[in-house]
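Re: that chain you flagged

S.,

Sorry for the slow reply, it's been a week of failed gels. I finally had a moment to sit down with the sequence you sent. For the record, here it is as I used it:
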Amino acid sequence: MFVRYNKYIMKKYKKTIGRWGESLAADFLSRRGYAIIERNKRFGRLEIDLIAQSNDITVFIEVKTFSSQKINSTDFFLRHEQISCLKRAMSIYCQQNKINFNNSRLDLVTVDLNRQSRLAKIRHYKNIF
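Prediction finished late last night. Pasting the structure tokens below so you have them in one place:
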């Protein structure tokens, strides 16, 4: 039997999964010496999921969370448009906080949630552009 999902419920579910993935990513990075400065920083329609400090580098982190049972579901690339939007948000943040843009980088953290095993597979890709 197939049941049609309510769009609102699915949107709320995706947002909840996304926020959970961001929390797992923040904890993962903290345990590796990153100091989380901000979460979900918005500039109009642009958003940066996590902003962290690692040594003297400001690290902007995009988090992608999946709830799947595929082994390699986290192996993918961001679209060019997404990277352009992230770069604009990074530039705005650097200008507002007087940070040298050349002293920053964009990282990607993927979180693959496996509901059966109740484990999350987290991967950290540094300096993705």
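What I noticed first: The chain has one domain: 7-125.

Talk soon,
D.
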